[in-house]
Amino acid sequence: MKQKVAVLGAGSWGTALAMVLIENGHDVTIWGHHPEQITEINENHTNKRYLSDVQLPEELKATSELEVCVKDADAVLFVVPTKAIRNVAQKFVEVCHNQPVIIHASKGLEQETHKRISEILIEEIPENKRKDVVVLSGPSHAEEVAVKDVTTITAAAKNLENAEYVQKLFSNEYFRIYTNQDVIGVELGAALKNIIALGSGALHGLGYGDNARAAIMTRGLAEISRLGVAMGADPLTFIGLSGVGDLAVTCTSVHSRNWRAGDLLGKGQSLENVLENMGMIVEGVSTTKAAYELSRDLKIDMPITETIYKVIYENEEVNKVVKEIMLREHKSEQEF
Ligand SMILES: NC(=O)C1=CN([C@@H]2O[C@H](COP(=O)(O)OP(=O)(O)OC[C@H]3O[C@@H](n4cnc5c(N)ncnc54)[C@H](O)[C@@H]3O)[C@@H](O)[C@H]2O)C=CC1
Ligand SMILES: O=C(CO)COP(=O)(O)O
């Protein structure tokens, strides 16, 4: 059945997901806070800053008025950067007069509180203004989804029915959604892989090869799983789409902003310079701080995260840390 969907966030991922929903015959309005970008979407049917070569469907409506966007929506998709989620949720509560299914497709941890995005949304949106919070996550670069490349991702919710609603909303011949009930694992896999992607990019920028990439991905997955299990996730989730799947795509693709940022850091650029020139969100930077602090609080060994934290927040030289991490005390691979 045709659904009315509000997409909050007019960046690359919000725009690509809105295109999938239009393809599936839904009534979609996207909200952004830059009026000139809204005019561009409505009049030129492009969003060049975020999806440079893509022609948007004419049915896609855009507005800078949140109330107009969410009015009578059956589902509301939050897809702004993690640092904006709480503020956008607070604004949403002021203008929401019904009870939509809440979906989010962002990937990160709140820097100050270390909370997952669904926790923030549940905290900010009262029960009479939401049905559930469903997490949409997995290996999916906007640039490829926008040109209908084959993609598989996960819709996670405690209540299977709500995950199935989102599965049905988004699925089509190029976009296949699996359900999952491990919300914690799906959100942590999504957030933490960005840290490892920064590292994978940095190794590339420093001139290391495929062995190094396989090493950081595999040992990265080990530490993601350790923290995840300590926080209540099902370990099997980390071998699924939101775990190894997203880790693989983000650690190997030139589309990944986290990988590209790491690559430039490895080549010797300063973090400020890298972030300024990227012009899009690099979630791994703030997630590194949150994950590092969590690992210390929970006493979980996360050597890769700790190393990346030192490079980003303590000015350790990126070309020196590889030797340090390689020469750490010896371990068994079977130690969890
Ligand atoms: N780009 C991708 O391929 C994918 C991105 N994601 C996740 O989706 C989230 C959003 O990422 P992108 O769309 O790629 O980011 P982006 O950098 O392309 O766009 C972010 C958008 O959010 C807007 N924004 C920022 N702060 C805002 C605020 N306070 N209020 C309203 N709008 C605000 C910006 O103006 C921009 O339009 C991130 O958490 C990212 O990790 C997840 C899967 C794929
Ligand atoms: O999450 C993503 C792909 O699944 C996007 O990764 P980046 O934010 O690094 O571009």
From TrEMBL:
<feature type="binding site">
    <location>
        <position position="257"/>
    </location>
    <ligand>
        <name>NADPH</name>
    </ligand>
</feature>
<keyword id="KW-0963">Cytoplasm</keyword>
<feature type="binding site">
    <location>
        <position position="283"/>
    </location>
    <ligand>
        <name>NADPH</name>
    </ligand>
</feature>
<feature type="binding site">
    <location>
        <position position="107"/>
    </location>
    <ligand>
        <name>substrate</name>
    </ligand>
</feature>
<dbReference type="InterPro" id="IPR006168">
    <property type="entry name" value="G3P_DH_NAD-dep"/>
</dbReference>
<dbReference type="InterPro" id="IPR013328">
    <property type="entry name" value="6PGD_dom2"/>
</dbReference>
<feature type="binding site">
    <location>
        <position position="142"/>
    </location>
    <ligand>
        <name>NADPH</name>
    </ligand>
</feature>
<feature type="binding site">
    <location>
        <position position="258"/>
    </location>
    <ligand>
        <name>sn-glycerol 3-phosphate</name>
    </ligand>
</feature>
<feature type="binding site">
    <location>
        <position position="50"/>
    </location>
    <ligand>
        <name>NADPH</name>
    </ligand>
</feature>
<feature type="binding site">
    <location>
        <position position="140"/>
    </location>
    <ligand>
        <name>sn-glycerol 3-phosphate</name>
    </ligand>
</feature>
<keyword id="KW-0520">NAD</keyword>
<protein>
    <recommendedName>
        <fullName>Glycerol-3-phosphate dehydrogenase [NAD(P)+]</fullName>
        <ecNumber>1.1.1.94</ecNumber>
    </recommendedName>
</protein>
<feature type="binding site">
    <location>
        <position position="246"/>
    </location>
    <ligand>
        <name>sn-glycerol 3-phosphate</name>
    </ligand>
</feature>
<feature type="binding site">
    <location>
        <position position="12"/>
    </location>
    <ligand>
        <name>NADPH</name>
    </ligand>
</feature>
<feature type="binding site">
    <location>
        <position position="257"/>
    </location>
    <ligand>
        <name>NAD(+)</name>
    </ligand>
</feature>
<dbReference type="Pfam" id="PF01210">
    <property type="entry name" value="NAD_Gly3P_dh_N"/>
</dbReference>
<dbReference type="GO" id="GO:0005975">
    <property type="term" value="P:carbohydrate metabolic process"/>
</dbReference>
<feature type="binding site">
    <location>
        <position position="138"/>
    </location>
    <ligand>
        <name>sn-glycerol 3-phosphate</name>
    </ligand>
</feature>
<keyword id="KW-0547">Nucleotide-binding</keyword>
<dbReference type="GO" id="GO:0006650">
    <property type="term" value="P:glycerophospholipid metabolic process"/>
</dbReference>
<comment type="function">
    <text>Catalyzes the reduction of the glycolytic intermediate dihydroxyacetone phosphate (DHAP) to sn-glycerol 3-phosphate (G3P), the key precursor for phospholipid synthesis.</text>
</comment>
<keyword id="KW-1208">Phospholipid metabolism</keyword>
<feature type="binding site">
    <location>
        <position position="34"/>
    </location>
    <ligand>
        <name>NADPH</name>
    </ligand>
</feature>
<keyword id="KW-0594">Phospholipid biosynthesis</keyword>
<comment type="similarity">
    <text>Belongs to the NAD-dependent glycerol-3-phosphate dehydrogenase family.</text>
</comment>
<dbReference type="Pfam" id="PF07479">
    <property type="entry name" value="NAD_Gly3P_dh_C"/>
</dbReference>
<keyword id="KW-0444">Lipid biosynthesis</keyword>
<dbReference type="InterPro" id="IPR008927">
    <property type="entry name" value="6-PGluconate_DH-like_C_sf"/>
</dbReference>
<feature type="binding site">
    <location>
        <position position="107"/>
    </location>
    <ligand>
        <name>sn-glycerol 3-phosphate</name>
    </ligand>
</feature>
<feature type="binding site">
    <location>
        <position position="281"/>
    </location>
    <ligand>
        <name>NADPH</name>
    </ligand>
</feature>
<dbReference type="InterPro" id="IPR036291">
    <property type="entry name" value="NAD(P)-bd_dom_sf"/>
</dbReference>
<feature type="active site" description="Proton acceptor">
    <location>
        <position position="193"/>
    </location>
</feature>
<feature type="binding site">
    <location>
        <begin position="257"/>
        <end position="258"/>
    </location>
    <ligand>
        <name>substrate</name>
    </ligand>
</feature>
<feature type="binding site">
    <location>
        <position position="256"/>
    </location>
    <ligand>
        <name>sn-glycerol 3-phosphate</name>
    </ligand>
</feature>
<feature type="binding site">
    <location>
        <position position="257"/>
    </location>
    <ligand>
        <name>sn-glycerol 3-phosphate</name>
    </ligand>
</feature>
<feature type="domain" description="Glycerol-3-phosphate dehydrogenase NAD-dependent C-terminal">
    <location>
        <begin position="182"/>
        <end position="322"/>
    </location>
</feature>
<dbReference type="GO" id="GO:0047952">
    <property type="term" value="F:glycerol-3-phosphate dehydrogenase [NAD(P)+] activity"/>
</dbReference>
<feature type="binding site">
    <location>
        <position position="142"/>
    </location>
    <ligand>
        <name>NAD(+)</name>
    </ligand>
</feature>
<feature type="binding site">
    <location>
        <position position="13"/>
    </location>
    <ligand>
        <name>NADPH</name>
    </ligand>
</feature>
<dbReference type="GO" id="GO:0005829">
    <property type="term" value="C:cytosol"/>
</dbReference>
<dbReference type="InterPro" id="IPR006109">
    <property type="entry name" value="G3P_DH_NAD-dep_C"/>
</dbReference>
<feature type="binding site">
    <location>
        <position position="193"/>
    </location>
    <ligand>
        <name>sn-glycerol 3-phosphate</name>
    </ligand>
</feature>
